Every structure is written in structure tokens, then in C-alpha cells.
Amino acid sequence: MSTPSEYPHVEEAEKPAFTVSLNGSGGPLKGWVVVDSLYDGLAMGGTRMTTGVTEEEVAGLARDMTHKFTLAGLPIGGAKAGIVSDGTNREETFRTFGRTVKPLLHGGIHLGIDMGVTPGDRAVFFDEAGYDPRYRLGAPDMPIDWRTYYEPLIDCTGHGVGVAAVTALEASGRTESARVVVQGFGAVGRAVARFLEDRGHVIVGVADIGGTLSADRLPVAELIAITDEFGRIDRSRLPQDVTVSMEPDAWLDIDADLLILAAQKYALNADNAHRLRTGLVVEGGNLASSDEAKDKARASGATLVPGVIANIGGAASAALAVTRVVPFDLSAGARKAWVFDWVGNRVRQNTQDLLEIAAASAGDPLPELLVARRKDRR
């Protein structure tokens, strides 16, 4: 048995509940499932598939899931899965994944979608595992299937990120429109851009995998219309007066008030944090900023709302169903509104409380808020 001294930087209580290495069942597979914490035997989190995902990354994401659910007050622990793959032979990969994680899915570890994994991929591994979230021992059955419940909530993550941004802007005393840069134009980035534009804010920069677009006012609806499912904007169909830059991290150089990070891991890092020009950063993705970048941003006077507060919409939507908190007797429209309101209220309260702690003391305010929420959860 490992002793605490073997982990000089990790306290015993900080280690994951358990980690499973995935080697495949009936086919090759490389990956991991990290269950960071269990709550009444339950845990959940998304499945990430990239060529470079590591066990350490999956563990960090699983820890973030624990923090998200703790902050939201949801009765479930945090987990995450990672698959090392470039997406070749997708169906075979996810059928192998489903067979391999079948005992975990049926044992209370719900695995959903994350970067590189689509709802269609999830349907494949659910089917191969014979797993249906509607049914769980000791819990009432869901009266609707998972797809009917979850698909209308696709923009819930973007909604929560938008609420965090608006709450932080209001807390700063700002009354006029903010100039906004959205780094990443996938499902979350597009939803946040729409949310903020609908509330009178101006999108002046958008970054996708191909570079950075900027203008005095970017037309969000027009950009969304020429964006593919992977968040890539068609450069051949850009509106007039849009400037295109291929410079690395050019989104950091745009004069703006608010930066939304909604793309890759550690987009804001030790090497580029000195270029930050905005006074407010909201993480719309998982692990969007490195710890060193967060320290540098705070030292420069910027306010940062972490993803464990802002980016909870998708995770909370799923957790509300898995834990049977959501009122399924509502009509489809009323149920969607209930979930969006629930997420918005949690994000707003956590953002306000985080900012109050930050105003009263130096350093990272998140640990103090987590301590308070753990006490509330008991």
C-alpha cells in the first residue's frame, strides 16, 4: 500500500478514489477512467478523446468535476474518462470502450461526452455496454429517454458561462456594453457569444482552430451560420470588415473588457499570460488556464472566474437527471427552463460569493469557497 510520503505534494485525502487503466475488451484501447470522489456510491463526468490526453490530465479533469458538483451542491462525485486516439475507426473505438467500461457504467459511474466525443459516440458506447441511464438500482426510473432529456440542453453550458460573465461585469459596477473576445467557437463559445450579444454586449474577437477574427462588432449569427460542427469558421464566407490573424494567441492582443476561454486546455498559460489585456476572464472550458497563468492574471489586477463555477451547465444538466433531482413531470419546455434557471442560479450565487471572497483577501479565493460549500453539502 502506498504511503503519504510517496506523494510529497499530495495529501492522502486528495488522491482519487480510484483509477482504472483501459487496455480494451475484445479490441485494443488506451485510456483511463479516474473516479476522483464518490457520493453515495455515485460519480460522473465526461469522456475526452484526443491524441495527447494523459492520465494526469484525466485526473485533473476528474478533480474539477468533484469541485463543480461540490460548488453546485449536487449529490454526486466527480469522474472523468480519457481515450488516446485520433478518431480513426470511431465506432470500433467506442464499442471497445463501451465493453471495457460496462462494469463502471452499471456500477454507478456515469460517463458522458467531452472534447473529441459526440452524442453519437456516446450512443455507441452506451449501446455496447447495455447501459441506459433511465434505470438504476435504488433510484426511480426516468420517464423519458436520455436523448430526449439531454439534447434540448445543449446550450446550457454556454448559458452558465454567460451568467457568470454578466454577474462579474455587474459586480465590477459596469453599466455600459462590454467588448468581448471569445476564444473557441465550438458549442460553448457560440452559445456564450449569442447570450452576451443578446444582452447588449459587443463581440469584437473570436478565435477558432484556424486563427483569430476581429472587428469593431462581429455579427454572431452570421459567424455561426458559417461554422461547422467542430467550431471551424469558413474563411471563404466571412462578412466584410473582418480582420483575420494567424498569429499564435492573437485573441490576447485585442482591446476588450472580457475574455471567454472556451477551447483547449491551458489556453492561458505561463508563456502568454503577460499578454492579457482584459480585466475579466471567464473560463468556459475545462482546465482553460494553468495555475501559474491564474496567479499572473490575479497579480496583474484581472478577475478570473474559474470553469468549476462557470462551466457547469452540461455536467449539472446530466447530474440533475442521474440523481433524479430534476422534476420530470414538467413539460419539455418547462423542464428545459427549470434546468437553465437552476444552473443560472447556482452560477450566479457562486460567482458573487467568489468575488466577495476575492475582494476581502489576497490570493486564490476558490479554496475558501469550496470549504464553505462542503459544509453546506453536509
General description of the model:
By secondary structure, the chain is α/β, with parallel strands linked by helices. Helix content is 39%, strand content 16%. The protein has helices at residues 55-72, 90-106, 119-129, 146-150, 156-171, 187-198, 220-225, 291-299, 307-310, 313-322, 332-360, 366-377, and strands at 18-22, 31-35, 43-50, 77-84, 109-113, 179-183, 202-208, 211-214, 243-245, 258-261, 280-283, 303-305. The two termini are 30 Å apart. Helix 5 (156-171) runs parallel beside helix 11 (332-360) and helix 10 (313-322) crosses helix 11 (332-360). The strands form two sheets. A seven-stranded mixed beta sheet has the order 9-8-7-6-10-11-12, sandwiched between helices. Strands 1-2-4-3-5 form a five-stranded mixed beta sheet.
Number of separate strands:
12
Question: In which order are the strands of the major sheet placed?
Answer: 9-8-7-6-10-11-12
| Mean residue pLDDT | 93
Number of helices: 12
Order of helices and strands: EEEHEHEHHHEHEEHEEEHEHHHH
pLDDT below 50 for ≥5 consecutive residues: which ranges? 1-12
How does the helix and strand content classify structurally?
A: alpha/beta
Distance between the termini: 30 Å
Helical residue percent?
Answer: 25-40%
Q: Please outline the major beta sheet.
A: 7 strands, mixed
